[in-house]
Amino acid sequence: MSEQQSDDIGLTDRLDRLRIEPGNLGVSVLDLTAVGVFVLFLLLLVGVGVLSLNYGMYLLGLVGMYGFMVVGLNIQWGYAGLINFSVIAFWGIGAYAAALLTSPGSPHDILLSPVIALVVAIVVAAIVAVLIGIPTLRLRADYLAIASLGFAEVIRLLFLNEREWTAGSRGISGAPELFGWLPVEPVVRLLSAEASIGTARNTIVILGMLFVGYLLVRRIHRSPWGRVVRTIRGDEDLAKALGKNTYMMKMQAFVIGCVLMAVAGWFYMYAFQYLDPGELEPLQTFYVWVALILGGTGSDRGSIIGAVTIVAILEGTRFLNEIDLVVALFEAIPGITLNVSAVRLLLVGLLIIFVIRFRPQGLLPPKEELIWPGAASDDTQSRERQATREQRGVDE
Amino acid sequence: MSTLQLVVNGIVYSSVIVLGSIGLSLVYSIGNFANFAHGDTMAVGAFGALVVAIGVNDYLLNPETAVSVSPSIAAILETTLFSLPIWFFVALVVGMAAAAILVVITEYLVYRPLDTGSIELLITSIGVALAYRALLILGFGSDPQTYDIGRSGRIDWVSESLGVAITPRDVVTVAITAILVVGLHLLLQYTTLGRKMRATADNADLARVSGIRTGEIILAMWVIGAVLAAAGGVFLGLDTLIRPRMGFELLLLIFSAVILGGIGSVYGAMLGGFTIGMAFEMTAALPFVGTQYNAAVAFIVMIAILLVRPTGILGDDTT
Fold it and tell me: Which domains does chain A have, with CATH numbers?
């Protein structure tokens, strides 16, 4: 084996890593296909006339919002094994930051820019996450579960009862345009004359932010930090024995996840223009959980697929009482009334049970995605083995 | 409201919390997981009793229906025992039975086939909780309901001598809770089943090696926990309203109680339940804090305990 060749390989390897390829950024062909299929499916529905273009864009925006929450929860539960049942509380912190600081309906009349609200949302969510983490992250995993569920209820009560500060159950309506300078209009007009520019802009903003956020998360997932955090999930004592400050690492994972949830809430205010504490129902947290375990715990791609699935479930069940078969079925069973939100609740509950029983790894379990691209393909391994052999040969 | 009155309310509310937290603690120590469906099991008990209440009030005692009973039987049904109609006690037992049957079915269908760790069981129990609640809403609607038992006045001689309003149903709640708690104590300490349960809680593998059929012990754990939880749910329904969401609201309080008492310790759960129930009602006596925050006060107590003594008051003791 000539030296020339092994040098060549080293060089191409290095070049490979420098070149900006989808693979190097952490987006595999499979991800792009999955997203592409979903977008095509939506376009098809719009084309056939089942969905209006505006509703399709609204759905994509919703996927973006749930995507942020699921990716955030994946960092906590999927990477680090932290059970956070206060997803909706951190979402609420983000949403109320946006509503109180930027909305014309806010009781404070401040009208700041959405960017400042985003920064405030992130900072407040991070501080609150640290405060929750201090008493619970040193203890067994189930303490965090219970404490976070309680915390979510406290946050809901605060937003509901501190009327002078939060407008209480009256709610806050109206929000400024999100990034009004984005030249969305000409592009959208190319596609359709009646599409809503606001919805299109929001959808583009959240999907763009999710894309950037996803790349960052994917990057830290594969970093040494990500490896240690995954070790903590598998065996915390082992990580401690290796000299890792597991408490600090868990805290970091918890804070990053909570910040992403706050970003989702921040977006909600601009997309829906109305917020009241009724949105902070604990059930919302479990929607995000279903999305994560269904998509694949610990898998970044799975998180996105999970977000798509949960939006399909939530929006799909809205039309249950328009389907004759379902209505007939409910009328056939005595003593039961068709209540769409209860059917959705039942569906979510059964999904949790069935996924854990029959497919605990989810739809897209984490596999090769955790290995740095090109680092573990078969020929690399043989190359490395070869290199070791050659080195040994030189030593001898 | 006088402080003494708050103490009385606290004792009544504590009964509900104690009944709930015992079952949660049993599942923690024998089943080894945090059962998030326990609050909704309490709600199932309350609705089970509601079925009897509806049956009696709307059908048996309603002269316009085909199944209405003759006046003599109606008189028997309406006979009061401690100012509560006799059918209420039947309803209590039916609620207990309904919750017990439901959890045993859940154990066979959901938990037993699962071969996973305690965290996966915890997440599964969330699914079970949502399913229970959905079924309750589908069956009974989401509006608040009552058992439709006329309010009896306070007990006169108590309000005259102490200046405290105590209703007969408060006395019934506390008395039945006391009977159930003492019964559980006797069962755990002096019967073979109790010894087997304590052994399984202590070390399930060792218990199995010693010839204890742990599968049966787990069933006993579910039945005992559900019966007590259902009683708590019925008493809360008697005191306030019966709503599908009541289970979730109770869940936080009983978890606080169990953590406060020490996870896995049944006697700790009783003590914790009593403390949390008192804290819940005593919120009214706190300055600057409205009663709308009484659930939050229980949560603050729990966080404080986690910071100071994470094992709880009686933690790491065997049951």
Answer: 22-372 (1.10.3470)
